[in-house]
Amino acid sequence: MSTPENTSKMTPAPVEKSDAQWREELTPEEFHVLRQAGTERPYTGEYWDTHTEGVYQCRACGSELFTSSEKFDSHCGWPSFWAPLAEGTVRYLHDRTMGMDRVEVRCATCDSHLGHVFEGEGYGTPTDQRFCINSVSLRLVKAEEA
Questions:
Q1: What is the mean pLDDT of residues 83-109?
Q2: Catalytic residue numbers?
């Protein structure tokens, strides 16, 4: 998969907090997904079928990660994007948990778990990739609010 480790001058300074600090700021579900690499149940998240125009930020630190322009209907039960907002907004880790070989997607600013990226599934997107992201990892800022 062509997902190089991203480092960009546009990326804000890394956010470093203790687990105790994160627990104070996040709900238990947000903490489980963002800080413990959990997964929300499919078709239950706030954004899996949203078509609202705007920018999706990291729920933990507010970094802009994805836009509605790259969001598409994959019918997998989680929000899907064919690319991040810009190079350097996310980073990639090889994930061999749960008996699978996948690529984990994390926020480049605060290292929060967002989801996974898959390639070659035949969706016909410009990148042939599907960033399968947990709704609870994101916050949508609607275009009219920006």
A1: 89
A2: 132
